[in-house]
Amino acid sequence: MVARAQSSRLAGATSPRGLGRRLLHSSLAEALTFPHGVDRYVELVRPLLLKRDVRAEVTAVRHQTPKSVTLTLRPNENWRGLQAGQFVGVSVEIDGVRHTRPYSPAGSQHAAGGALELTVSTHPEGRVSRHLREHARAGLIVGLTQAQGDFVLADPRPDRVLLISGGSGITPVMAMLRTLCDEGFEGEIGFLNYARSRELALYGAELDRLTDRNERLSVARGFTRGRGAKLTGRFCREHLPAVISEHSGAATFVCGPPALIASVRAVWAKDGLAEPAVETFTPAALSFDTDGAEGIVSFAASGREAANSGLPLLEQAEDAGLAPDHGCRMGICNTCSCRKTTGTVRNLVTGQVSTAPDEQIRICVSVPLGDVALDL
Ligand SMILES: Cc1cc2nc3c(=O)[nH]c(=O)nc-3n(C[C@H](O)[C@H](O)[C@H](O)COP(=O)(O)OP(=O)(O)OC[C@H]3O[C@@H](n4cnc5c(N)ncnc54)[C@H](O)[C@@H]3O)c2cc1C
Ligand code: FES
Q1: Domains by residue range for the chain, with CATH
Q2: How far apart are CA 71 and CA 40, in angstroms?
Q3: Protein residue whose Cα sits closest to atom 18 of ligand 1
Q4: Does the beta carbon of 325 sit less than 6 angstroms from any atom of ligand 1?
Q5: Predicted confidence band of residue 12 (pLDDT cuts 50, 70, 90)
Q6: Could you tell me the pTM of the whole model?
């Protein structure tokens, strides 16, 4: 038995596949493929067999509602896994241009084979969401970042968990619910789930199935523009007893539009409770003043420059005819990260002013104060 195990290990080490992988990771391969690196060449032949880039193959596509698409993805071996509630940057090529957007996988973090499930809700003008809805097919390869974000369940798990979601914001809390169910969580779970109507409600059938199987789970739905739900209207304190014995002390996770988050925060503040964990997919309205903007913004790599309009640098770059890569447009995903070579910028989220040369900044939330040069 032992001898067979050893010989098969040795066979693996010298098999064409094992040898190929060793060669792929060797410095010789890196030197031979300079300046593009091994991945650029391998990608042309076997898109999933890359040295360091994370890629995933779409293995199944389904449509839960008329305005969404649910994709099952099989990531390559560079994927390091995720915690339920985190998001990934998903890149697709549309008309020869790569676009990246953050999506929160909705599956359990314990899904068999590390499979990921994305549910993408389409926006009427949305580039990537409409592309995925219209063109994603089994076999499509997409780019992925490693998982990011701290909207996650604590470990060890809390005794009581309250999940609140609105619209497409169901995805990260669905991942938490599925993960807790897979772990045989024995505490109380309450789930308030809001959608516009029954037709647009995501994961309705699965929520019913999970509730039937788990007596500690209570789910209540509210349709803000339709009938037939247990809850009436938008979130309010009166909805809480429908799913949880006592909301104070429950680890609470809220994901949805800013108005839902504001309502939950207001109830929690009034009750003197600690802030719930929140996430929104919608870029926040950032406040900044363009009056008095001065100086020149230089985009060194493209040889362009423009008078500083006082807007965030991503918008100034787009106004100058550039198309920098971006994802969330709210300082979360790091897709727009770019090197500022000189100048002073203010981060609109943190308020921090930084003057250091040669630093990476998130241009979607950075406004220039005077002359600024970017490596763009
Ligand atoms: C951390 C995080 C996780 C996310 N997870 C998911 C997810 O699991 N499922 C999902 O469907 N989406 C998710 N999103 C939103 C997603 O990243 C994209 O914003 C969305 O798919 C629209 O991209 P697009 O390219 O289609 O639209 P774009 O071409 O980027 O934008 C088109 C228009 O739609 C508007 N718009 C863009 N996004 C939104 C929005 N979220 N709400 C309202 N208007 C918008 C823009 O202002 C613009 O006018 C997540 C966002 C973040 C920040
Ligand atoms: S686009 Fe996500 S951090 Fe700037």
Answers
A1: 53-144 (2.40.30.10), 160-279 (3.40.50.80), 296-374 (3.10.20.30)
A2: 26
A3: 101
A4: no
A5: very low
A6: 0.86
